[in-house]
């Protein structure tokens, strides 16, 4: 899966994580090694190809709660282009 993501998206690193115990996350990451060769495995690379995430387990819930607020306060670009505000 890491090789497919690197081929499609060419990210700096792939963050592997979730709401599971860190011991299980570490074990899963170790089982994935060594990673298959990829074009992202270049010598000038600064970050590892696979990184274990360290975010708060509530990060997903906070992002989901912030989405309606962001949608309310984001500008409507169609209104800016037309000069008129379209009804919702």
Describe the structure in your own words:
It comes from Jiella avicenniae. The protein contains 4 helices and 2 strands. The protein has 88 residues and is mainly alpha-helical. The protein has one domain (2-82). The chain has a two-stranded parallel ribbon. Helix 2 links the parallel strand 1 (14-16) and strand 2 (50-52). It is flat and about 55 Å long.
Radius of gyration: 20 Å
Report the end-to-end length measured between terminal Cα atoms.
41 Å
State the domain count.
1
Strand order of the largest sheet: 1-2
Unreliable spans are: none
Q: Can you tell me the overall shape? A: flat
Mean pLDDT score: 80
Tally of DSSP β-strands: 2
Biggest sheet: strands, sense, closure? 2 strands, parallel
Q: Helical segment tally?
A: 4
Helix content: 40-55%
User: What is the string of SSEs from the N terminus onward?
Assistant: HEHEHH
Please state the structural category: mainly alpha
Task: Determine the strand fraction and express it as a percent band.
Answer: 5-15%
